[in-house]
Amino acid sequence: MTINDRQNELIEEFSMFDDWMEKYEYIIDLGKEVTGIADDLKTDDYLVKGCQSRVWLIPSNKSGRVYFDADSDAIITRGLVGMVTRVLSDATPKEILESDLFFVDKIGLKEHLSPTRSNGLVSMIKKIKTYALAYTAKAN
Amino acid sequence: MLDLSKIRKDFPILHQEVNGKPLIYFDNAASTQKPKAVIDRISRYYAQEHSNIHRGVHSLSAAATEEYELARKTIQQHLNASHDHEIIFTKGTTDGINLVANGFAKSILKPGDEVLISELEHHSNIVPWQLACESSGAKLKVIPISDSGEWIMKDFYKLLSKKTKIVAVNHVSNALGTINPVNDVVDTAHRMGVPVLLDGAQAAPHMNVDVKALNCDFYVLSGHKLFGPTGVGVLYGKEEWLNKLPPYQGGGDMIKSVSFEKTEYNELPFKFEAGTPHIAGVLGMKTAIDYCNAIGFDAIAKYEHELLEYGSKKLSSIEGLTIYGTAENKASVISFLIDEIHPYDTGTILDKLGIAVRTGHHCTEPIMTRFGIPGTVRASFAFYNTKEEIDVLYEGLLRVKKMFE
Ligand SMILES: Cc1ncc(COP(=O)(O)O)c(C=O)c1O
């Protein structure tokens, strides 16, 4: 599946809900399902500087494809970062760098992508792209 | 009794929907809303009265200067200061503290001296003193707080010493709402000859502030927390102390004469008001104070206390909810957490319900560290809030609890 396939899959999942309550309940469920990151790995090295909710992100790289694990101390943020890593994991660095994350807007969660929310999501996406760039540089 | 329906009509911003729900504004400790009188005053100033002050012979400038100085006079009376030149207009609380801290660093603090603050301070009453200590070689000392969010006074008595050159503490805590025993602090410090700065950012909106009764040496506040405009505030300083401090910034208005060899500074209050000030802001702030005084701060304090009691009781009845800041004497601020639910999660759902609260560390990270929590959810009430709004918050929190547990 490509990044866009996975985005469309999420949009499809969310299309079942009519009101914000159901949507948020689903994000919370997703947040609870996220495998997350073991507590001893939640170090400053992996901390994405958000503000209010903390986000940790660990990249890995297997045969030219990049994978991400993420976690947060707030459940809504955890659900959101879970969705982003689900979309962007298992892709090549090039695909990640060229990706356009339209699903957040389509699902109606655009407000969470505003830097003023200071939930760490925007910083995390930036960080993912930085990792992708670093992997590209290494591959070259 | 306050006439709530009339008061609420005075605040245009309150009558709107947020996320499809009627707005409930419970973030008053961060900033308060503005009555129409203030908005109109500012717009009238720009539409009809604007001109630079203290410099023109022409009529507009003279009239603007008069209004500006009348505002100073009003604020002097409101704070019960001895002289109007003890009222310095600033950009806000932060600016006022920086002005004093900078002056102390330059003229008073020496290596080995100490500055005494408390664990309850806003970052803006911590960092300027850290900078002052860094540049002067003085040391920062901190009065610790108890589990209820109150200063441990016996530690204060111990920390105060001959080395202490200033005590800088808040009158009311923004994060926990504690009304601090500042009279005791001022009396004790004065017995040792130590001056006291009170950060009144959170006190001024809730009570009558009388600097003579407080007998503090400096008092700072922000217009925007007092139903006035942003970008303007007040530093009150006793004349003898203001005269001891060097100018903060150089520029126009703060000088008597300038030559390349020697510049002579203007007298108080102009020595501390370099450059064209926020004239509209000052006039708006005056109007805000007049507006509050017409209602009466005693009536305001009494009503807000009712809101606090009602809210504390109602929220405490939610299982798993912990209130941080349980001092006997509190302003209308309720800081809390529900079980393990992250404040960001609670705040996000409340926002969806049209309820504006503050979440996070409230610029008081040391307090959060003290309690071992990432932050709190803070509902802070003003006199335009109602018990019915607290009921909606209560229902919202029950919903939050159900969603996250
Ligand atoms: C106790 C206290 N001190 C200082 C400040 C800083 O005020 P301002 O940002 O208006 O300068 C605040 C504002 O949150 C406050 O609550």
Explained architecture:
Chain A has 140 residues and is of the alpha+beta class. Chain A has 6 helices and 3 strands, in the order ααβββαααα. Chain A has a 3-stranded antiparallel sheet. In chain A, strand 1 (47-48) and strand 2 (55-62) form a beta hairpin. The two termini of chain A are 25 Å apart. The model of chain A has no long low-confidence stretch (mean pLDDT 89). Chain B has 2 domains: 4-30 and 296-403, Aspartate Aminotransferase, domain 1; 39-294, 3-Layer(aba) Sandwich (Aspartate Aminotransferase, domain 2). Chain B has helices at residues 4-9, 36-49, 59-79, 93-107, 127-136, 153-159, 182-191, 211-214, 239-244, 279-295, 297-316, 343-352, 365-371, 387-404, and strands spanning 17-18, 21-22, 24-25, 87-90, 114-118, 139-143, 164-170, 196-199, 218-222, 233-237, 255-258, 263-265, 321-324, 333-338, 355-356, 358-360, 376-380. In chain B, the strands form 5 sheets. Chain B has a 7-stranded mixed sheet with strand order 4-10-9-8-7-5-6, with helices on both faces. A 4-stranded antiparallel sheet of chain B has the order 13-14-17-16, covered by helices on one side. In chain B, strands 1-2 form a two-stranded antiparallel sheet. In chain B, helix 4 packs parallel to helix 5 (127-136) and helix 11 (297-316) packs parallel to helix 14. The relative contact order of chain B is 0.16. Chain A binds chain B through residues 20-21, 24-25, 28, 51-54, 73-77, 119, and chain B through 19, 341-345, 348-349, 352, 359-360, 374-375, 403-404. Pyridoxal-5'-phosphate (PLP) is lined by residues 92-94, 122, 124-125, 170, 174, 199, 201-202, 222, 363 of chain B.
